Amino acid sequence: MHRRLTIGEARWPETPDFSAVAAHWNKNSSTVMLGFVWKGYDLLGSGVLSKVDVALVDEQLERNITQFLTPKVRDCMTGYEPFQVEQGVYEFETRVSASAQPPLYDLAFVLKSNPRIMWPMEAKVLRSDGDVGRYVNEITDNFLTCRYAPFSGEGSMLGYLLAGEPAKVFEKIAIKIPCNLEDHPHFTSRNHKTSDHVRLVPTDKSYPTNFRCHHLIIPLKYGQ
């Protein structure tokens, strides 16, 4: 279906320079950005999660945690980064039609100089360490089809773990996708692994084919 231009597409068209900026930013910034996420989680844990019994809260849990986490991540940033973090950001690049709602990221780091280029993060509540179905579907149905992160060779899943062991979550994810999960060299003390994939790229697009997914399993019982 034919689509007209959005303001972003008119201001920042897909040119060789556009692609070069996206690739350079993606390659050099992911460790910094994810470091802010983990530091933000520590602030959320000490200030909020450690003060409540998460077993008793179940209303809008996914949105609630994300809404509290986002400003904590922002608090860890200096303000001089070439990107900012936002909650609830639309991906207009992969919209189906003018009338259809485009994909909406739970969180995303957005490049200030070209806000069409985003590094997305999708959050899913894991009620147990075997509850990975919706989590895996986000990867296979969205990230690996280029519906999410079309201009980025990386993205992240945030698994808000309500009960169970992160190690068992990783085991289930590796089986369900399937994929190999590797430790991230900069976050060996965290529940953080990566998996590498080859994406199905539309024939008329030059999106990155190789994709790295970061898996951050975030226990809601902070300190356990």
Number of domain units: 1
**Total DSSP E strands:** 7
Name the quaternary structure. Answer: single chain
The fraction of residues in strands falls at 15-25%
Shape: globular
Describe the main β-sheet briefly. 7 strands, mixed
SS-based structural class?
alpha/beta
Give a short summary of the structure.
With 224 residues, the chain is α/β, with parallel strands linked by helices. The chain has helices spanning 7-11, 16-47, 61-75, 133-143, 166-176, and strands spanning 83-90, 104-111, 118-126, 154-161, 182-183, 192-198, 210-219.
Molecular structure report:
The protein is an alpha/beta fold. It has five helices and seven strands. It has one domain. The chain is 33% helix and 23% strand. The protein has a seven-stranded mixed beta sheet, sandwiched between helices. Helix 4 links the parallel strand 3 and strand 4. Helix 2 crosses helix 3. The model has no long low-confidence stretch (mean pLDDT 93).
Layout of SSEs?
Elements: H1 7-11, H2 16-47, H3 61-75, E1 83-90, E2 104-111, E3 118-126, H4 133-143, E4 154-161, H5 166-176, E5 182-183, E6 192-198, E7 210-219
Parallel strand pairs: 3-4, 4-7
Antiparallel strand pairs: 1-2, 2-3, 5-6, 6-7
